[in-house]
Write a structure and sequence with these properties.
With 475 residues, the protein is an alpha/beta fold. It has 16 helices and 13 strands. Helix 9 packs parallel to helix 10 and helix 14 runs parallel beside helix 15. The structure holds 4-nitrophenyl beta-D-glucopyranoside (PNW). The site of 4-nitrophenyl beta-D-glucopyranoside (PNW) has 13 residues, from loops. Its EC number is 3.2.1.21. This is Beta-glucosidase. One of its GO terms (cellular component) is cytosol. It holds the Pfam family Glyco_hydro_1.
């Protein structure tokens, strides 16, 4: 029997994803405390156009409308994040019942519509009081995270399908504490590496806390963003190794193998002695997880800098300030401009990178089920005279990446599902509202939602599980 390579098997989960600070708004309502992203976005010069998440998509007040949108699309699962500062405004200590009530309504609304809740505990909105005490550079933040995990597990553990501890600790550590283009905007290479460790520790302590008390039967996971590097000239292989160590294995090593890679420690010896790693930490960090979340958007092309002229740093982040996202030996890695078409982020479109990444992860971690927890694209959408949004570039991006995921299944990868980033246009961090990732358009003046053509396409894909059927009726 041949299996149509454009059809997804039963059990493969189709979802979509968002994050609290990017969509909720209501930043000062119902007892929510300030987060590092409130502070950062309200500090001039940090975010495009001075945009903030104060209102965002106003999802906080439009939850029911958004739930109905999800049901209309036929989403099987919805990946969202809990705002720690809504639940424990001080980071530790008093719990804000109104914050718990809000997420309780969201979770019930999902369950009523047959949508599986996939909840991330931390998608970057750290309570500001914890940053004031050192943030992720401090061990106390990992311990506070475990306390927060206990609170949310007690409140929602009976109703959550999948718990995810952290979203993309790479971004939190290196963009937040190294390059300074994300909150809290610090530019301290040693603090960035301490943050790597304390985020890893938070994952381990948090997973244990969630597991200790759960009354339901949730799956446990973490979501990482992997750098898929291609060789781009002299020293390409060595450059790839350095990026892989700092960006990927710095997290998978401790979380899945219980060790930091020896080459990572060597590459960063001039920056830190890693003395913040205490005896026993690695055993705490390494916890069995049911699924590893994979966020994928693009590839990078690298070589070693020859020391001549300006170094190119086309690594896809916000424009580089004095800080660096690449402490240690990776500082000598050049990121070359990428050939071929790219999205509005300037990220090249490379679906084969997704297949390669999934195959590589399943080779490195053979028994670890995988899930694509984010994939999607920003484009400069045009609203047609009749109000429709023909985002055929986004649909094309998505269909090619779905087919790339399908290829990985054919190659034996245990891939459980795929979440489109994002359900809604939203606050794209330091790019503010200038980059639209949604399959649903949000008019940020009226807050009106409109399904883009890509959303109609996705609805057909979910209903039929077939890319071919989804493509018929393209509009
Ligand atoms: C991810 N980089 O962020 C996040 O999980 C989302 O919140 C975000 O909206 C989405 O991808 C699109 O950007 C990233 O600079 C932000 O390499 C920056 C980078 C990678 C991922």
């Amino acid at each position: 029997m041949t299996i149509d390579p454009r059809v997804f098997p039963d059990g493969f989960v189709f979802g979509s994803a968002t994050a609290s600070y990017q969509i909720e708004g209501a930043a000062r309502e119902d007892g929510r405390g300030p987060s590092i992203w409130d502070t950062f976005s309200h500090t001039p010069g940090n975010v495009w156009h001075g945009d903030t998440g104060d209102v965002a998509c106003d999802h906080y007040h439009r939850m029911d409308e958004d739930l109905d949108l999800m049901a209309h699309l036929g989403l099987q699962a919805y990946r969202f994040s809990l705002a720690w500062p809504r639940i424990i405004p001080g980071g530790t200590g008093a719990v804000n019942q109104a914050g718990l009530d809000y997420y309780s309504r969201l979770i019930d609304g999902l369950l009523q519509r047959g949508i599986d809740p996939v909840a991330t505990l931390y998608h970057w909105d750290l309570p500001q009081p914890l940053e004031d005490r050192g943030g992720w550079a401090s061990r106390a933040t990992a311990e506070a995270f475990a306390g927060y995990a206990e609170v949310v597990d007690a409140a929602f553990g009976d109703r959550i399908g999948t718990w995810t501890t952290l979203n993309e600790p790479w971004c939190s550590a290196y963009l937040g504490y190294g390059q300074g283009v994300h909150a809290p905007g610090r530019r301290e290479p040693a603090a960035a590496l301490a943050a790597v460790h304390h985020l890893n520790l938070a994952h381990g302590l948090g997973t244990q806390a969630l597991r200790a008390t759960s009354t339901g039967d949730p799956r446990y996971s973490v979501t990482l963003n992997f750098h898929v590097a291609r060789p781009g000239g002299d020293g390409g292989e060595e450059a790839m190794r350095r990026i892989d160590a700092l960006a990927n294995r710095a997290f998978t090593g401790p979380m899945l193998r219980g060790e930091y890679p020896a080459d990572l420690l060597e590459d960063t010896v001039a920056v830190t002695d890693w003395s913040f790693v205490r005896d026993g930490d690695l055993a705490e960090i390494r916890q069995p997880i049911d699924v590893l979340g994979v966020n994928y958007y693009s590839t990078v092309t690298v070589r070693l800098w020859d020391g001549e002229g300006e170094m190119t740093r086309n690594d896809g982040h916000a424009p580089a300030a004095e800080g660096t996202a690449w402490p240690g030996a990776a500082q000598e890695v050049e990121f070359l401009p990428q050939p071929g078409p790219s999205t509005a982020m300037g990220w090249n479109i490379a679906p084969d990178g997704l297949t390669d990444l999934l195959v590589s992860l399943s080779e490195q971690f053979p028994d670890q089920p995988l899930m694509v927890t984010e994939n999607g694209a920003a484009f400069d959408d045009v609203v047609g005279p009749d109000g429709t949004i023909d985002d055929s570039e986004r649909t094309d991006y998505l269909r090619r990446h779905f087919l790339a995921a399908r290829d990985a299944l054919d190659r034996g990868v245990d891939l459980r599902g795929y979440f489109v980033w994002s359900l809604l246009d939203n606050f794209e961090w330091s790019f503010g509202y200038s980059k639209r990732f949604g399959i649903v358009r949000v008019n940020f003046d009226t807050l009106h939602r409109t399904l883009k053509a890509s959303a109609h396409w996705y609805r057909r894909l979910i209903a039929s599980r077939s890319v071919t059927v989804a493509d018929e009726g393209w509009r």
